[in-house]
TrEMBL record:
Keyword Transmembrane helix included in the entry's annotation: yes
Pfam families tied to this protein: p450
InterPro entries: Cyt_P450 (IPR001128), Cyt_P450_E_grp-I (IPR002401), Cyt_P450_sf (IPR036396)
UniProt protein name: Cytochrome P450
Annotated organism of origin: Corchorus olitorius
Transmembrane region(s): 28-48
Keywords for this protein: Membrane, Transmembrane, Transmembrane helix
GO molecular function: heme binding; iron ion binding; monooxygenase activity; oxidoreductase activity, acting on paired donors, with incorporation or reduction of molecular oxygen
Length: 268
């Protein structure tokens, strides 16, 4: 950015009647003036873009470029409730270059999520979600369409159907019994119940997919490592990422979320 400002400043200096005194680098004054001009140009572009957009729900005024980001409160549910008392059940918030619609009424939420769910089915996937699902190829982030409906039919018929669940009942019972047996052998010792539950669920999935499971030291070592990877994966998905709000910053990966997610996927 500094190099860009420098080049633009040089061009601005050369294009005016001001004397640059033969300096190879522009002065601090020229740099400051150029920065102000760029900020003004961006603000004007934002204003005209906002002026000519279609009608949208009411909402609080935001700042140019940043929108309502500086005014968000830590307790979002309380903040949204206060806004709903002012602007009604449907509120528009500008988060950077993204527009967020908040629905705070049960009746309106029913219309959005049930009556008109096909219209609102698509979502804006985060950068971390796209990387973690190899370009949004999973059912979670794929846009609503023929491919998504095909995946949904497969999940319903092959994974979540009563026939599939009944077929895997013996596997689930076996793994739960193994967990209970292990906990019984550790009577009097501290046990991380969360780790044991995760290992049991992991073994159920492994048994359903490949017919095998982890046992002994391998179960503890690989299971705990995999749980840590899953924990990091979920944290990267939920972490606020400035590139999601300002897509033109994606290439810079300012917070390192993209590189961390790629590394996590490579390990998996």
């Amino acid at each position: 950015m500094e190099n860009l400002l420098g080049k633009v400043s040089v061009l601005a200096c050369q294009a005016t009647y001001w004397n640059c005194n033969g300096l190879a680098e522009p002065t601090i004054v020229i740099r400051g003036a150029t920065t102000l001009l760029l900020a003004a140009a961006l603000a004007i572009a934002w204003w005209f873009g906002k002026k000519f957009t279609k009608s949208s729900p009411p909402g609080p005024r935001g700042l140019p470029i940043l929108g309502n980001l500086p005014f968000l409160k830590p307790d979002l549910h309380q903040y949204f409730h206060k806004l709903s008392q002012i602007y009604g059940p449907i509120i528009k918030l500008e988060l950077g270059s993204k527009i967020c619609i908040v629905v705070s009424s049960a009746s309106v939420a029913k219309e959005v999520l049930k009556d008109h769910d096909a219209i609102f089915a698509n979502r804006d996937p985060p950068i971390a979600g796209l990387i973690g699902t190899y370009g949004g190829s999973s059912i979670s982030w794929r846009p609503n369409g023929p491919e998504w409906r095909k995946l949904r039919r497969l999940v319903v018929s092959e994974v979540m159907s009563n026939t599939s669940l009944d077929a895997s009942y013996a596997l689930r019972r076996r793994e739960v019994r193994e967990m209970v047996k292990y906990i019984h052998t550790e009577v009097g010792l501290p046990i991380n119940v969360g780790d044991q539950m995760f290992l049991t669920i992991l073994n159920v999935f492994l048994s359903m997919l490949w017919g095998g499971s982890l046992h002994g030291d391998e179960r503890s070592r690989l299971g705990i490592e995999f749980r840590q990877l899953v924990k990091e994966f979920v944290e990267f998905l939920g972490a606020p990422n400035i590139s999601d709000l300002f897509p033109f910053l994606t290439r810079f990966d300012l917070q390192g979320v993209q590189s961390k997610m790629k590394k996590c996927c490579d390990v998996v």
